[in-house]
Amino acid sequence: MRLVPYLLISSMRRSNSEVNQGIFGEMKVASIFHPFFFGNDGQIIFNDVTIQEGAKKNKHQIDHIVFLPYGIFVIETKNILGRVNGELQNENWVLASGKTIYNPLLQNETHVKVVKDFLGLSRGVYSVVVFANSNKPKNINVPELVNLEDLKEYIKSFKGERNEINLTKEEMETLASELTVK
User: Fold this and answer.
1) Is 118 left (phi over 0), alpha (psi -120 to 50) or beta?
2) Domain extents for the chain?
3) DSSP string covering 91-154, please?
4) What pLDDT digit, counting tens, does each position of 14-67 carry?
5) pLDDT tens-digit series, residues 140-176
6) CATH architecture of 2-181
């Protein structure tokens, strides 16, 4: 397993406690992929990736990209305290504090498209939104929205018939190297 270290960059728009909470959640998610917990499927993990979208010059910050023989998983982590309310189609979700966040499912749909375009793939790239504090909205039942304790099982469910691609170790390394070269 290859693990790319975190870049700890704070945002001017968020408080330090929000940034630290987000980083802690991302660390919890990244640790799931350690071979001791996940098993050794040859996973290659990138954390805190920024991809610039072609000529548009839009930058997309992606929490995790995990390369596995049975798929490439683009993971958005939410480490929010308290209840989260939202609907699948709503652009914004409401936190217990009254603050709103952009719908992470919609956010990650964009990330998946960017990763597919960046790597030149049309299939085998999957969206996963993880709630690190096990407080995903209870009224939204889509498979790609999971609590932390369900992440491993969800990802491993792509082994076998469910997956759209079968990558060799060399193919995974070649694709992963695109993230470090471009």
Assistant:
1) alpha
2) 2-181
3) SEEEETTS-EEE-HHHHHHHHHHHHHHHHT-SSSEEEEEEETTS---TT---TTEEEGGGHHHH
4) 455 555 666 767 888 888 888 777 778 889 999 999 998 777 678 999 999 999
5) 889 999 999 999 999 999 987 677 788 999 999 999 9
6) 3-Layer(aba) Sandwich (3.40)
